[in-house]
Amino acid sequence: MTHRVLLDVDTGVDDALAILFAVAHPDIELLGITCVAGNTSLPNVVANTLKVLDAAGAPPIPVAGGAVRPLIEPLRSSHVHGEDGLGDLGLAPSTRPVDPRHAVDLARDLILASDGPVTLVALAPQTNLALLLRQYPEVAQNLERIVFMGGSASGGNATAVAEFNVWHDPEAAAIVLDSGVPAFMYGLDVFNQVTIDESDAARLTQGSSVSGRLAGALLSFQMADPETAPESDADAAAADAADGAAESPWGGHIGDAGALCALVDPGALTIERHPVRVELAGFARGQTIVDRRRRSGEDAVHGIHSSVPAIDIALDVDVDRFARLFLDTIARLP
């Protein structure tokens, strides 16, 4: 089955892995890529996206820049992807052209011009999506669904309860969930589970494939944590000695690429359908509240229950199956 896909990205390390996967997988027809500020600034996102397409040996694919900040809040880029948002790997600048249209206009044109329904895969804060659905609501008629990496049915990472992409622009996420377009949430519950063995990443890094070496480097990148990161090599050695550890723990997360694995192999997931709303105020701002109750509660009894749309949610994953799918797909690239 061919999936006509429009990607919306804030290309950091894990978006880059997802772009490689999307270019390589035979069941994905990548129509275009729209960029939004999130992991890093919009200029970095656009530049990073073009560099990854180069590494993948991708054909001409339209790429456009979109929102430079959330709908309401200021831009608060993530600290974990390095100064350039792409692990500071030093990739050469791309000569690929940037589409002159705004991302929202490119998305509209591609969706309406498609000869079949389009799946919009959002791997970033959903600012571009919210603007698209508000400015051009007619696109909904040619959207099969929205698959988004974001949210959580458990805890958060940006805050104790909120996942970064939703937390970064919760108003946008709320608009998308309330739009009536069918949605699928690939959240932290599964995002944090899927990793590649360090030996597999090393084989990629040491291989002859340009894209494979990039994938290996991205998988091997250690996400920064300024709250706990040692200030010097001496501090790092002291921390290792104190912890009884000789080296940093292996990460190897495929990250956003998991949302595309979910698109082509949903059978590897445990999926449930539940109402989801986005909290817009207070300490829980940005939390995706997943109502997993099997019967009505006191809110319904006392007339304070509000209707909330139900969406499909990934709650568990066959890690080995997704890891093999990712590796087999990346192996198709030059």
UniProtKB/TrEMBL annotation:
Native organism: Herbiconiux sp. A18JL235
Annotated stretches, region: Disordered: 228-247
Hydrolase listed as a keyword: yes
UniProt GO cellular component terms: cytosol
Low complexity composition bias: residue spans: 235-247
Signal peptide (residue range): none
Pfam families reported in the protein's UniProt record: IU_nuc_hydro (PF01156)
GO term, biological process aspect, one: purine nucleoside catabolic process
Hydrolase keyword on record: yes
Positions of the Inosine/uridine-preferring nucleoside hydrolase domain: 5-323
InterPro entries the UniProt entry points to: Inosine/uridine_hydrolase_dom, IUNH, Ribo_hydro-like
Protein name: Nucleoside hydrolase
MF-aspect GO terms: purine nucleosidase activity
UniProt KW keywords: Glycosidase, Hydrolase
